[in-house]
């Protein structure tokens, strides 16, 4: 038995989840180790947070963020149990927890679906509805603000890694980005997931299932909205043949989300989201965690140029950003 499996086995014992038949490593991304556990009566997943993330840059964050992820999933499970895996146990000392396993045959990853051109606006709308409901249920709640006061880890994993790292590489827009980072760090509006990316959303038969909430923190819901919409724009650069479908998903997501916004006026939230979206476009090229699929110089220049144009004149409507993005993509192909 390897040292890793010994640690996982010890955690399984602490969570009263033994015996098991097999422990198989899965792809855990940059921030964690993930194992598929085959037990006599069921299959489930065990996840362990890493103190140093698997990226080229030196990117570290406390492994205690696993506790925040468990807390977020339990809270959201109380809103709608279909939106998250069931938590089966937690070993806080080892920063390991166990959760329900969803087979890819019935719950494909949304990122894979989008990359294959299966971009369904109806599903995008379901994601928007779910995200707005989570934000709405937690907005203005001092108890949740105290429970998810995870500002230190959110700064390390999101504000520093995306906004401030990109600002350091682009001095021409750095003051504006740093101002947004400061505002983001001070916001206490609703509970953020912190990593609403298509890679962390499963397309379930009853709607979306959210994973990887280790960056959850009480803050600005605009962060979650911008973080997800960013991927719908970037994928149109990666797969321009699917750009109309991605644009339809973008529009459906935005309208479904704002139909559930009750805690503040749309115009303020939409403008904050547009500003963060512009920064994320830049950060996913020049942040600590760049997207792996935009590797050509031409693609990177295209994204940087549009991101800075948006920052120079932040649109008041997200649909205006999508329309400008579509127009620029069309001009590029001519």
Poorly predicted ranges: none
Shape, per Cα inertia axes: globular
Describe the largest sheet: 5 strands, antiparallel
CATH topology of the largest domain: Aminoglycoside 3'-phosphotransferase, Chain: A, domain 2
CATH architecture classification name of the largest domain = Alpha-Beta Complex
What is the spatial order of strands in the main beta sheet? Answer: 1-2-3-5-4
Number of domains: 2
Pick out its properties:
Phosphorylase Kinase, domain 1; single chain; 5-stranded antiparallel sheet; 334 residues; Aminoglycoside 3'-phosphotransferase, Chain: A, domain 2; two-stranded antiparallel sheet; 12 helices; alpha+beta; 53% helix
